[in-house]
Amino acid sequence: MATEQPEQRTWRRPTAFYNHYVKWAVYVVITVFLLWSAWNMRISPARIMDGWNAAVGLVEGMVPPEYTTQFKNELLIEGLVESLAMSVIATIVGVIISIPVAFMAAENIAPKPVYWTGRGIITVSRSFHELIIAIIAVKAVGIGALAGVIALSYKTVGFFAKLLAEEIEDIDSGQMEATEATGANRVQTMLFGVIPQVMPRIIGLTIYRWDINIRHSTIVGIVGAGGIGATLLNSFDQYDYDFFLTIIIAIIAIVMVGELISTYIRGRIQ
Fold this sequence. Notes:
Elements: H1 20-40, H2 45-62, H3 70-104, H4 112-127, H5 130-141, H6 145-169, H7 173-181, H8 186-217, H9 228-237, H10 241-269
Helix pairs in contact: 2-10, 3-4, 3-6, 3-8, 3-9, 4-6, 5-6, 6-8, 7-8, 8-10, 9-10
């Protein structure tokens, strides 16, 4: 009796596309779009060389950095301290606002109207860059650190609330049900059935957002929202490139210290 031969199968690499024709059509569209983008930017070898020569001249004007003038050192220290203060205050204010918004935006614990309201707040907060918010805040409250705190707090809500809401949606519902079984009301269930599960995440996200706000606090000052950014922009506008480099080095040092602190604290918590 003849035995049946097993069916021969050939392996093909999995693809996310409907078929190979669609895949190559997408590749062609992407390639054409990239070529059109490069052409539309009018990039030319002469322009690249001019930019390279200007960059070399800029670097030569920066070296060595300026740190001998007492007045400039005072400006530098004052700007850095203000940036650090802005990042701390903005993080605290933003987190306080973000926590209830995150509970509103968690689908497993919020009614649908509340859920969509919370998601809408997060979407609006994430839609605009902090520089745009800083410009609006400067127009509203004037030049200074308050405008920077408003801008950074605003951006903190979109970042913090979104990630915390996703964490709340992944909690163990059994702990909530056990809390409710004891006769706890809605607020008590949130306090003792939800918050203990997400508290490590809240602390970790707070430290992480503070680290981000340190970096962003050095930028919003460019539009007059306080911090070291204003000093940075003024030094560049006055062609004081050596002091500009000093500020850049100081910003890098502050960001690195903040990164080390946040990494250590997150590691201890986790």
